[in-house]
Amino acid sequence: MKNLHKVLLLLSIVLFIGSCNKNPGFVDESEQVPVDESKPVISLSASIINNNLTDMDLHDETAPDVNLTINGHSFCYGTDINSYENCKAQNINNFENVFGETAVYKVGNIEMNFYCPEMIYFDAPQTIDPGTGFDITWNVDENNNNDVLISIIPRIDGNGSPYTSKNTNRVDIITSDNGNYSFSPQNLSNLHSGDIVDIVMIRGNNKKFNQYYLEAFTVNVHVAMVQ
């Protein structure tokens, strides 16, 4: 399940960045941040399934010997997977508390203040009727000026066969972080009866600072069936 979730996470983030013509990332138009692949990326992510936090991770290209800290806490490094996982499990609460506040990222002697939006939690039905549509609600982050992404991604068809592409008949909505969205029958017209789908929500932020590219985001996944 965790591997599936990480695949969905990557697919959704790629889609989110690629779908924003004027806003290629999680930022608003007043502070556009195109991805600069020449800059080391520091990415803090939270993975949530059915509103339960399942994993947190850090993608860090600054090199371990630089000693990256967030709010004074060091992330775990090392090639021994057991030592790494044990260290991360012991320190996860330090970084769970980073979401929803402006955190101090420190890389070597460079300090960067960066807002990490609140983790996103949402309610959605377990059964979707494309003929009537449905409502989705989530916790609003009053300090988040960026949009959120809502995706409906077919995973298994009505015959029980996996879809060969996660983009097949997927529904993608970018909307303001106001806490609710109503899917109309028009939104759902490409879904098929019997499909098992993942409803995915992403909220995040990114920023260029000096020679670094920072991002923090939450991905939350619910599973539903199409009537």
What does this structure look like?
- This protein is mainly beta.
- It has one domain (1-63, 117-227): Immunoglobulins (Immunoglobulin-like).
- It has helices spanning 2-19, 81-96; strands at 41-49, 52-60, 68-70, 73-74, 101-107, 110-116, 122-123, 127-128, 134-138, 148-156, 171-175, 180-183, 196-209, 212-226.
- The strands form three sheets. Strands 1, 2, 8, 10, 11, 13 and 14 form a seven-stranded mixed sheet that branches. A four-stranded antiparallel sheet has the order 4-3-5-6, with helices on one face.
- A hairpin with a 2-residue loop joins strand 1 and strand 2.
- Mean pLDDT is 80; it is low at 1-34.
Give a quick summary of the entry.
Helices cover 15% and strands 41% of the residues. The chain has two helices and 14 strands; from the N terminus they run αββββαββββββββββ. The longest helix is centred in the N-terminal third of the chain and has 18 residues, at 2-19.
Number of strands: 14
CATH topology: Immunoglobulin-like
Along the chain, the helix and strand elements come as HEEEEHEEEEEEEEEE
The biggest sheet amounts to: 7 strands, mixed
- Count of domains: 1
Q: Which structural class matches the secondary elements?
A: mainly beta
> Helical amount among residues, as a percent range?
10-25%
Q: What's the CATH architecture?
A: Sandwich
- Counting DSSP H or I runs of 4 or more residues, the number of helices is 2
3D shape: elongated
Q: Rg, please?
A: 18 Å
Separation of the first and last Cα atoms: 24 Å
Q: In the CATH hierarchy, what is the class?
A: Mainly Beta
The residue-averaged pLDDT reads 80
Q: Determine the strand fraction and express it as a percent band.
A: 35-45%
Low-pLDDT stretches: 1-34
In CATH terms, the superfamily is Immunoglobulins
